[in-house]
Amino acid sequence: MTIRTRRDRGEVQAGGEVGAAGQEPPPTSAARSVAARVLARVWEESAFAAAALDAELSRLSALDGRDAGLATELVYGVLRTQVYLEDRIAKLAVSKRWAGDPAVRAHLLMGAYSLLFLDRVPAFAAVSEAVNAIRAAADDRVGAFANAVLRRLADEAALGRPTLVDAVVASAPGWLRGALRRAIGRAGASAFLAAGPVPPPLGLCLSPEEDREAWVARLLEASPNATIEAGRASPRAILVRGAGDLRRLPGFGTAWLGQEEGAQTVALLLGARPGERVLDACAGRGNKTWLLSRQVGSGGAVDAADIHPNKLRVAMSAGARATYGVDWSGGTGDVPEGYDRVLVDAPCSGVGTLRRRPEIGLRREEHDLERLSALQVTIARHAATRTRDGGRMVFAVCSVLREECEAVVERLSGTPGPGEPAVKLTPTPFDAAEATALGIAEGASGVRLLPHVHGTDGYFAAMFVVHH
Ligand SMILES: C[S@@+](CC[C@H](N)C(=O)[O-])C[C@H]1O[C@@H](n2cnc3c(N)ncnc32)[C@H](O)[C@@H]1O
After folding, report:
1. What residue spans carry the Low complexity bias annotation (predicted)?
2. Could you tell me the distance, in angstroms and rounded to a whole number, from the CA of residue 265 to the centre of ligand 1?
């Protein structure tokens, strides 16, 4: 079967309507059209699902909340179960050519996902919506093919449906399942992969002097239809769902900043005290710099460094005293010494953010881990030289994999390799007040935050004391 889309044949105009040469197909729901465009961008342009979805939803402001919710569920659902769905379809279809056309692929997978996992969509509606959309995108022949496949899948679903957890776990690449099992055990790996809610709520990070209860009340007053509640892991976190653009809420940029709860917990674990000098060594746009600079107050200072100077411009407005462009893999650049504390929020696989960024599972590969692990060690060793003797460093990643967590700690705690800076890094217990609230065992120098345990994205953080 060769798929030639209506667009290929010039029957679809720029706006997506069927032109005079084509017969008007029954309309596809707005939610499915949005989700199909987002999925196509993820597959074809390597777009991030969340950003592509945001862009589509803000372009179509007329889309009501229910449709936006369905589009979101379809995008995340299909990406999390993609391999499972494609295997099921492959068993029912001789040809795999459907996978070559993104619109056909998206509607076929959304139809399959709806049949297997969406109780609120009746089977006949799931099939006809997908078939109509595929007919419009390709032609009647491809529509008939999709109809046959989805009807057979509907018959199979009537006899028994898989659990979403099984489908999500089966869709994770084998290397990732293996790496997760090595890190957190078989049950932990399944719980991690299946952890919801998907997508998770947005996090706000309150400045240390602000009262959380008062802000929850104030934000609810400003956005009465939203769900707004205190976070669990970070005492500074407020979790928000359904409030629209956060920047329109009171207090943005002054009393609070948008920041995922696990990310702010990592910043808090550095334990910065008023008056201290702190270096945010991989600061990016300064999300953590903002909180750190409020912790140290006007008597202290936070400097921000990163390999990308353009990101650092934003870090400056987040409260950095000074910024330094530096590639820590090759040295220390112009970054001064003598900091009381250094945060190394190192580049990583990002596997910890899987429930927020499901496309990571489709893009990362096993060999990335070795490269990233080596880079993390080099970056942390160079950044550690910037502490004062006896100062502290937190190494953190938004990953939960052993290779990027304990394995890095082991290498950092060992003797430096040839050419590596000769600092002595000793794991030491966290000294941040927030560590106790997190349930970190007394004396522990490392912690893994997990979505199914802490409700945050997955992170790892380890504290060291540094001697020169
Ligand atoms: C996980 S991100 C940290 C993001 C930031 N701390 C935040 O909270 O948004 C890792 C950062 O490390 C930076 N980076 C990557 N390789 C680097 C290197 N060799 N030297 C310095 N910075 C590097 C990246 O540009 C990125 O901003």
Report:
1. 12-29
2. 17
Q: Which atom of ligand 1 is nearest to the CA of 266?
A: 8
Residue 399 Cα, ligand 1 centroid: separation in angstroms? 14
Contact 458, 354 (CB under 8 A): yes
The pLDDT score that the predictor gives to residue 6 is 43
The ipTM (two decimal places) reads 0.99
Same fold, 201-259 and 260-467: no
Which pTM was predicted?
A: 0.90
Pocket of ligand 1 (CB under 6 A): 263, 282-285, 287-288, 306-308, 311, 326-329, 345, 347, 379
Does the domain spanning 260-467 belong to CATH 3.20.20.380? no
Query: Is 87 labeled as ligand-binding?
Result: no
**Topology of domain 201-259, per CATH?**
Alpha-Beta Plaits (3.30.70)
> Model confidence at 357, in pLDDT bands (50, 70, 90)?
very high
pLDDT tens per residue, range 19-45 = 333 444 445 688 999 999 999 999 999
Could you tell me the residue ranges of all domains in the chain? 30-167, 201-259, 260-467
Res. 303: pLDDT tops 80: yes
Do residues 412 and 378 touch, judged by C-beta distance below 8 A? Answer: no
User: Quick check: 240 pLDDT over 60?
Assistant: yes
**Inter-residue contact 278 to 287 (CB < 8 Å):** no
Ligand 1 atom closest to 346 (CA): 10
CA 434 – ligand 1 centroid, Å: 24
Would you give the end-to-end CA distance of the chain in angstroms?
68
* Residue 465, beta-bridge partner list: 392, 426
Task: Show the CA angle centred on residue 180, arms to residues 287 and 46, nearest 5°.
Answer: 55
